[in-house]
């Protein structure tokens, strides 16, 4: 299956992508991971992208799309893939559609994860990370035994710079402006499947399977 995952920050797309990857035996493709790899390896695309990021500008849609579609042409993605974090705009979606059409393929579904903004703010602002072992906890939903300390290694827990309320609200505003119109674009093509992202990971996974008409494990 060829699936796009769309949703606001903190809605659990990454977790469900990992579950679906194992379930469907297809690769999960993240545009952010591809971009960082191209820059790190110093490729032509990476150098072009770095010029924009160093200047504080968005990487052009054409550059990002080229990175993604080239990855989708690799052998492990021939039978299907999950796209997480791409496309983010209608322009990117149109470029992706054109590229897939050249290879005589199309998307099978677009999963949209729905979650109220206030829940997202609570989830992200309460997240804490251990810089030592990478353990992630939440001050409300999964608090450590000793406040401010990692249960696994005892290091002091920290908060990511982009998990402040101001930053989260700004990211939500960008999502509403740039990505929400994409949901209508895919709905018009009969591809959009909406999933309630509230609840436990297994509950959400069951809803994803039901939306895709997959039997639950």
From TrEMBL:
GO molecular function terms listed in the Swiss-Prot or TrEMBL record: AMP kinase activity
InterPro entries linked: Adenyl_kin_sub, Adenylat/UMP-CMP_kin, Adenylat_kinase_CS, Adenylate_kinase_lid-dom, P-loop_NTPase
Region described as NMP: spans on this chain: 30-59
Chief localization: cytoplasm
Residues binding AMP: 31, 36, 57-59, 85-88, 92, 160, 171
SUPFAM superfamilies in alphabetical order: P-loop containing nucleoside triphosphate hydrolases
Region (LID), start-end ranges: 126-163
Cellular location(s): Cytoplasm
Protein origin, superkingdom: Bacteria
NCBIfam families listed in its UniProt record: adk, PRK00279.1-2, PRK00279.1-3, PRK14527.1
Quaternary structure and partners: Monomer.
Protein name: Adenylate kinase
């Amino acid at each position: 299956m060829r699936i796009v995952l769309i949703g606001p920050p903190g809605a659990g797309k990454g977790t469900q992508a990992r579950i679906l990857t194992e379930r469907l035996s297809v690769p999960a493709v993240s545009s952010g991971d591809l971009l960082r790899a191209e820059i790190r390896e110093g490729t032509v695309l990476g150098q072009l992208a770095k010029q924009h990021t160093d200047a504080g500008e968005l990487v052009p849609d054409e550059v990002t799309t080229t990175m993604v579609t080239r990855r989708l042409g690799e052998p492990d993605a021939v039978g299907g893939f999950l796209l997480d974090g791409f496309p983010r705009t209608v322009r990117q979606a149109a470029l992706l559609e054109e590229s897939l059409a050249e290879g005589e393929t199309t998307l099978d579904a677009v999963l949209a994860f729905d979650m109220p903004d206030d829940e997202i703010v609570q989830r992200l602002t309460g997240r804490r990370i251990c810089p030592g072992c990478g353990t992630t906890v939440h001050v409300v939903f999964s608090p450590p035994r000793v406040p401010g300390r990692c249960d696994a290694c005892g290091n002091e827990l920290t908060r990511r710079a982009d998990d402040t309320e101001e930053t989260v609200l700004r990211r939500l505003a960008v999502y509403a402006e740039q990505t929400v119109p994409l949901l209508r674009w895919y709905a018009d093509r009969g591809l959009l499947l909406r999933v309630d992202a509230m609840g436990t990971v297994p509950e959400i996974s069951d809803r994803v399977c039901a939306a895709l008409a997959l039997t639950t494990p």
